[in-house]
Design a protein that fits this description.
This is Ferredoxin-NADP reductase. By secondary structure, this protein is of the alpha/beta class. It folds into three domains: 94 residues, Translation factors (Elongation Factor Tu (Ef-tu), domain 3, Beta Barrel), CATH 2.40.30; 109 residues, Rossmann fold; 84 residues, Beta-grasp domain (Ubiquitin-like (UB roll)), CATH 3.10.20.30. The chain contains seven helices and 16 strands.
Length: 315
């Protein structure tokens, strides 16, 4: 599937919780959109040039639309605020097709653990498990119930299988009990803020369920970009530039006045992806799949390096 962005139109914007809006996109030509499975996300190219990833939280069977939910992050880098301010019916955005690094694996049943806006990738998973007739339970935590998106929709789907644990009402959920009582053929899917996921990881390890835990984090740790020096050859211009042990390809490009697209500068958004013509990339990103890294067809110039003395890029 092509990773090139397509222009989609905002069909609807709905406030689904305090500081959370759901945005539904559609094709400008009335066409079906690229298929996706639970756990997938799309990448929005905002008018400012920022690229942001948002989990799809609609129904995969609904091929005419994509739905995401976006939390306004006051302390963020500006992407969520920009989207909140510009998203209105009729607005047009560039959207990269769905990509899935949090796929729902076959299992005898599931325990879903959500913290705040981390509910978004789990919502389609609940629908899938329900349609498949599989047992599941959702534990959904948040600061206050008013800040927790889709609560009513979730209760309609799951009834008493949904446990809503707002800090200001029910208190925090008992993760030790939830994970400790998990049947052996069930898998845990968790998404939420780092402290929650760190706690889930520790509890799963203590319960002997670490191998059945699947996580999706809002952010990733800073990539290690240091390494042996090498040269990068830019095939279009014929220029060859040295990349030092503490510099990156992207940093070298920018220092030499060469324009290259970028956004996150930490190897997770895919904006700076470049085609490799020769040499073996030393992948440091979290964007490419293991198979894509093994192929070595592309590399993320913001963090990745080279196994060897020279890397030739289609730049």
């Amino acid at each position: 599937m092509s990773r090139n962005p397509v222009k989609l139109r905002v069909r609807a914007v709905e406030r689904v919780a305090d500081q959370v809006v759901a945005v539904t996109f559609e094709s400008m030509a009335g066409l079906e959109l690229a298929p996706w499975e639970p756990g997938a996300h799309i990448e929005l190219v905002l008018p400012s040039g920022l690229v942001r990833h948002y989990s799809l939280c609609g129904d995969p069977a609904e091929r005419e639309t994509y739905r995401i939910a976006v939390l306004l992050e006051e302390a963020g880098r500006g992407g969520s605020r920009e989207l909140h301010e510009m998203a209105e019916p009729g607005a047009v955005l560039e959207v990269r097709p769905p990509r899935n690094a949090f796929a729902l694996e076959p299992a005898g049943g599931y325990l879903f653990l959500a913290g705040g806006i981390g509910i978004t990738p789990l919502l389609p998973m609940l629908g899938h498990a329900t349609r498949a007739g599989l047992p599941w339970r959702l534990v959904y935590g948040g600061r206050t119930r008013s800040h927790m998106a889709f609560v009513d929709e979730l209760v309609r789907i799951g009834g008493d299988r949904v446990h809503v644990a707002a800090d200001d009402a029910a208190g925090r959920p008992d993760l030790v009990a939830e994970i400790g009582e998990l049947p052996a053929d069930h898998v845990v899917y968790a998404c939420g803020p780092a402290p929650m996921l760190d706690r889930v990881t520790a509890v799963a390890a203590e319960a002997g369920a670490a191998d059945r835990l699947r996580l999706e984090r809002f952010t990733v740790a800073a990539a290690d970009t240091a390494g042996e020096p090498f040269e990068v050859e830019l095939s279009r211009s014929g220029r060859t530039l040295p990349v030092g042990p503490a510099t990156t390809i992207l940093g070298v490009l920018r220092a030499n006045g060469i324009t290259a697209p970028f956004s996150c500068e930490n190897g997770y958004c895919g904006t700076c992806e470049a085609v490799v013509l020769d040499g073996e990339p030393d992948h440091r990103d979290t964007y490419l799949t293991d198979d894509e890294k093994a192929e070595g067809f592309t590399t993320m110039v913001c963090v990745s390096r080279c196994h060897g003395p020279r890397l030739v890029l289609d730049l």
